[in-house]
Fold these 4 entries.
Entry 1:
Amino acid sequence: MKFIHTADLHLASPFQGLTSMPDQLWKQIYNSTFAAFRQIVDAAIAQQVDFVLITGDIYDGERKSIAAVDFFRQQVSRLNDHHIPVFLSYGNHDFQKNAGDDPNLPANVHVFGNQVSTSQLKLADGTIVAVTGFSYGQRWIDDDLTSQFPVKGTVDWQIGMLHGALYQAGTGNHYAPFTLDELKSKNYDYWALGHIHKHQLLASEPPIVYSGNPQGRHKNEGGVHGYYLVHDEGNKLVPEFKALNGITWEQVAVDLSECGSENEVDQAIRTAIIPSKQLQLVEIVATTGSKWRSLVEDGSLLDHFQDELSRQPAINWWPYQINLTGGQKLPELTNLDQDYWQQAEQDVFTDENLAAVIKPLLKHAPLYDQFTEHRDLGEYQKLAGQLLGKRGDHDED
Ligand SMILES: [Mn+2]
């Protein structure tokens, strides 16, 4: 037996924050979530898998784009043509009241309802597979639903599909919280998780697996993305991560402080970009010294590259941001102040403080989701440093 586990397709993701780029490039980026799922369907057909699991967040938003719905229907129809069943659940992004089998989708697609339920599948060789899951009916599920998942029955394999996050004391736990012990107590053979966008195994016996999203959507979703191809070996299910060649988010550090001319600055940055066949969206982190600092701060260095690359017929990298390295944030402070700053950073940038700061956003669920899903203390720390650094500049003026 073999199957594919994916989740978090986020079809039609808006890729906010990427502005002023050539139309062709923007189209390629916008199409990347679609392209990633098409590649997964290609793989399912080529591998002749027994079924495909999609654990939530198929669509980026509650209001599904027509293009995304059409595209998804086309792709699962290709699977239908090859007699490959699909099990899907909706997640916190594409939650749906009264979820269930959908007459607009081909007959091979089983959509889990809002209550936990189990669906059985008999493979050609007689193997019986049970798949248990549920769809979000609203944006948040604060309850731990794992108690509603039945213990493995008299089937050959049982798989749980769960779009959710590990229970963490002191945080909101709005995404169907669960603990590993609870999942393990069900005696399932595999847990196909969704919601966290970085692929990872939370446990290996049985595999409790986040597939991650097949295409990273912003700089905090860098690294390799793909899906899991799972096969049986003896009495175990073994997940194998398969990378997709989508658009990548890279951070490139470059030292410009020794550059003698603007031409050398240009060359130093080009040399630092590692060539790749895949389109790279690049954040350049520049050490400038005082000489080239203003080129970064006033945006002219970024404009230079974007203008230049816009005129190329085909490009495989695009700088979307150029930032200064951390060391230059607080040039006016003494060493004593640096120590103090570092200590303060440790005290201030904690999960607890972040939770307190964003608590008022609970009233604005989409904003709250943005912060909790993409929380990055290091990023906030860096931005705070840059703001304080700017304050220092003004004081000197
Ligand atoms: Mn998601």
Entry 2:
Amino acid sequence: MTPLSLRAEGATLGYGGRAVCTGLDLAVRPGEFLAVVGASGCGKSTLLRAFAGLLPPTAGAVMADGAPVAGPSPDRALVFQDDALLPWRSARRNVELPLAIRNVPRDRRRADADAWLARVGLADAGRRLPRQLSGGMRQRVQLARALAARPRALLMDEPFGALDAQTRAAMQRLLLDVLADAPATVVFVTHDVDEALLLGERIVVLGPAGVEQEIPNPRSATSDPARRAQVLAALGAPATGEEAA
Ligand SMILES: Nc1ncnc2c1ncn2[C@@H]1O[C@H](COP(=O)(O)OP(=O)(O)OP(=O)(O)O)[C@@H](O)[C@H]1O
Ligand SMILES: [Mg+2]
């Protein structure tokens, strides 16, 4: 599937009549890896919700591939900042969810979900309920669920925030591997400037006035093959099989 283009055009986003950002303009090219940073409360999660189709703009437009975003779609997977797993479904059944929406047959669904859980280092956690998992494990189940959908756009809200340094590096590597294999447009919110510089082909700084700064980053691991090879080597072996600590 081809990566989506995403665009906010003069978009006003907010809650209950209170605008968080007004007249926001931001375009993400198909296949681009955009890192978004900015102070707490400036509207990063709000922007992702709008791209995900969970928050319609009150003015202006939010578009995917040139058409207004009318609601959620399996084409645009959101990894939430707060835990968004269904608490009554096991980890495996959470990962199966987007596969069911895509009408993948039941036995393939299960095998796919197990394979994705293994790739995020949770091969043995499939039967556990979210409350039986640590915060970092739940984040990785969310990641597996988002990747399993094979989305055309990945909207990631501090997806690795709860992980220790080693597991974070393994997940960054997994993301780079998955994207090399199945390109997608990525909007990646992070508080970690090093992570933004490592992964983002472009970094935007969001503020109360919208996009306050735009920093091209041609030496990111996603844009420069030589740098990518270097980074992958430095990040070490991918997390497969057993749980990464
Ligand atoms: N569901 C909601 N209802 C009302 N106000 C909200 C809601 N969600 C967020 N806000 C407000 O919108 C503003 C932007 O919030 P948002 O979550 O987008 O910030 P953020 O940049 O993601 O911050 P952080 O870095 O802390 O995650 C904040 O002032 C917040 O209080
Ligand atoms: Mg947020």
Entry 3:
Amino acid sequence: MKKLLFLFLIISFSISAQQVDLSYYLPKDVTYNSVIPTPKSVIGHEVGEWHVTHDKLVEYMKALAASSDRISIEDRGRTFEGRPLLLLTITSPKNHQNLEVIRTKHIEATNNASVNVSNAPIVVYQGFSIHGNEPSGANAGLAAAYYLAAAQGNKIDELLNNTVILFDPSLNPDGLQRFAYWANTNKAQNINPDPNDREYREVWPGGRTNHYWFDMNRDWLPVQLPESRARIASFHKWLPNILTDHHEMGTNSSFFFQPGIPSRTNPLTPQMNQDLTKEIATYHAKAFDKIGSMYYSEESFDDFYYGKGSTFPDINGSIGILFEQASSRGHAQESDNGILTFPFTIRNQFTAALSTLEAAKNMRVKILQYQQDFYKNSRNSGENKAIVFGDEKDAAKSFHLAEVLKRHQIKIHEVKADFSSNGK
Ligand SMILES: [Zn+2]
């Protein structure tokens, strides 16, 4: 009898882990436009049933862009393995017709403190799974993009009228592909949640990094990799007000959102940035309470190094937000909190993506004003000195530093004539 019961438990678990459908992720009180293809109708499996490969992710994002007048799509270049670096722009059809005017005005507001921002849309950059083996973000992106394209009603209309979403479905295509191959190849017909199962023991070097094993979440400042170059160009083109960075952490944890440890915030980041981050966090907390998921804030993770995706925006008048979901690192794994399924991790990331947009919509004018003030205060801070750099013996050093500065749109000029200062 005990054996029978055990067998029954295994069967019922394997069924519950695999039979998830799209409604598990989506808000319940919304109707969806049947013209918009669901992820399953394009990629052939339900969100969370398998780890989405990057090629399927691309296929779905292109299908969405082709079927929705809320979405335009651009191909910003190639990874080292030749995968496209896509960016979706998601906003109301009316804003789409006027997009370049909206963008120009948005940038103008950072240069001219007299521009009135109260009627302007807020710009939100949502980026997923820069660490490729932290895949719940990119997989949640399937459901989030579907929701933004297909949801109907006043709530979504109001959101899209007031928001321009720059949707980066995979910040690390080569790493995501490498991890999807591992998790899918080692998935059994009946999922085995034992942490010692091969599925949860990805081989070295793993999907965290890009093709050359660089951690791209350290490259937002140096901008040396093709993925970062495309992304930083998009960032400066739009100067988003909020940028979200969806990650995963240890399996036994829950869900983290910023603010991080207060004493580990970079001192150059304005206090107001942290205050707004905290106010945005109330939207995440409310949304997680609603679905009954555990979360925490302020007890771990720094907001110090500007080469990270959640911190880089903070020194550019934007608000960077780090999300960290406990990782199932496969399809379902035992943890201190019970069995952690891949769909559960995806649902949390999806929920955080939507609570970010809800906060952006409700706090729009306050956040737009913050960005405008940030640039005004920076100009007036008396820190606007010019810095002279160069090297008598190694011109390449100066050249490459100039290259990095140019990627950040920092103005550089050659000096017109030799001069000396402080004996140099
Ligand atoms: Zn990460």
Entry 4:
Amino acid sequence: MKALVVYESMFGNTAAIAKAIVSGLRETMNVDLHEVQDAPTAPSDDIDLIVAGGPTHAFSMSRTATRTDAMAKGAIHGKVDFGLREWLDGIPAGHHAASLATFDTRVTKVRHLPGSAARSAAKVGHKHGFTTGSSPESFYVEDIDGPLHEGELERATAWGRELGALVAAS
Ligand SMILES: Cc1cc2nc3c(=O)[nH]c(=O)nc-3n(C[C@H](O)[C@H](O)[C@H](O)COP(=O)(O)O)c2cc1C
């Protein structure tokens, strides 16, 4: 069983979550991890599961304007002109052998507000022909630049473990 994990991260929090998800997945799957700008745009047919995530910006996936804003606020990772939205848009539409699971990071104190990058990414994934075996998942940060809310790395590893079990059972 093979998984591809793709993440966007500007302040490093989503990167840490992605790595924690990978450690859960690796209990049952072979996993490749890529930052979004280095991820394959045509994932190979032997991949069973794609896990894709990024930071929630303005209630959705980031855009050039919000990534520019993040840079102005001190972000040191990522690229202004390319993120999760652009990567997903670049995947050809049609049937995909892999199922898609999406995640994001969001700020704890506005968790009651609607809108998450994970939900937006899942919608785009459906349009591109992916099936999703799991609900979009959010992980929480205390502020724009972090840190992660306590326990989120452990929750991410557990989520990765669950995804691996779902794939094995399907
Ligand atoms: C321009 C901008 C817009 C944001 N909008 C939201 C938002 O709508 N909802 C939210 O919960 N967090 C929002 N945030 C906080 C991000 O979700 C947070 O910076 C991100 O989770 C950190 O992940 P990273 O370290 O991987 O970049 C925003 C951050 C920036 C820079």
